[in-house]
Amino acid sequence: MKSAIVFGANGLVGKEILRKLEENPAYSKILVLSRRYVASDNPKIVSEVINFENIHKYWAMISADELYYCLGTTMNQAKSKAKFFHIEYNYCLNIAKIAKHNKIKKFFYISSKGANENSLFYYLKVKGQIEQELKALDFPTLAIFRPWILLGKREQFRFFESIFKFFFSIFNFLFIGPLTHIKGMPAKGLADYVLNTASVVMSGAKIHYNNEIHSYLNNKKKQ
Ligand SMILES: NC(=O)c1ccc[n+]([C@@H]2O[C@H](COP(=O)([O-])OP(=O)(O)OC[C@H]3O[C@@H](n4cnc5c(N)ncnc54)[C@H](OP(=O)(O)O)[C@@H]3O)[C@@H](O)[C@H]2O)c1
Predict the structure, then answer these.
(1) DSSP string covering 21-74, please?
(2) Mean pLDDT along residues 115-119
(3) Ligand 1 within 6 A of 36 CB?
(4) What would the mean pLDDT of 83-96 be, rounded to a whole number?
(5) Which domains does the chain have, with CATH numbers?
(6) What are the strands of the beta sheet with 66-69, ordered from one edge?
(7) Does ligand 1 lie within 6 Å of residue 30's CB atom?
(8) What is the pTM of this model?
(9) Ligand 1 within 6 A of 124 CB?
(10) Residue 197 has pLDDT above 80, yes or no
(11) Which ligand 1 atom sits closest to the C-alpha of 74?
């Protein structure tokens, strides 16, 4: 039986990953660490509200077989580049360093299509920097997922995202072949792919691209 920790379990992707972990009998304990309590009547889920500004206080808790990192913010929410960097980069790297120290073997990070430390776009640059630092930590297994626009129902309204979502809700089926690189990514499908990755024996760091995720989902549909 495996244990897992989920960060960002209140979010679009995190919720789906938590759901998948919950229904998977291979997992006996799932710890959710978040700033808002995650209610569940499933006895294998333990939810703790924590203060991310003082993450070292929770050092001993961050111990499991696998860690799913789905926490992230937007420039709109963060309001400044400095705050965005702090939430995206510092939170993630502080947790990853503790995870590495506590010998967590598998680290799963939801990044973004286009992540690149040299990007001119700040969002993608920071995601790229995080990826590089995670690689440097040398986890036995590091899986980085780079989805394009995420599709799914959100609690709060995001104007620009809603325009993309509207577009993809009509035209997503047209994105085939090389266009699957920029095909909208259903959060449920991404979670399915992430959990499948966790079930496969893999060592070292690997980046999983948007088109690979779609290819897995298409093959699964055909089966
Ligand atoms: N949106 C897209 O189209 C898209 C595309 C590609 C990649 N991504 C990336 O994929 C990842 C997951 O995206 P998502 O859409 O699932 O994210 P989301 O729905 O916005 O959820 C983000 C999670 O992070 C938590 N969080 C945010 N700021 C926090 C803070 N200051 N302190 C503690 N927790 C905080 C949220 O907690 P609360 O619920 O308490 O706020 C929530 O659980 C993100 O890293 C995102 O950048 C997104």
Answers:
(1) HHH-TTEEEEEEEESS------TTEEEEE--GGGGGGGGGG--SSEEEE-----
(2) 98
(3) yes
(4) 98
(5) 2-222 (3.40.50.720)
(6) 45-49, 27-34, 2-7, 66-69, 106-110, 141-146, 204-209
(7) no
(8) 0.96
(9) no
(10) yes
(11) 47
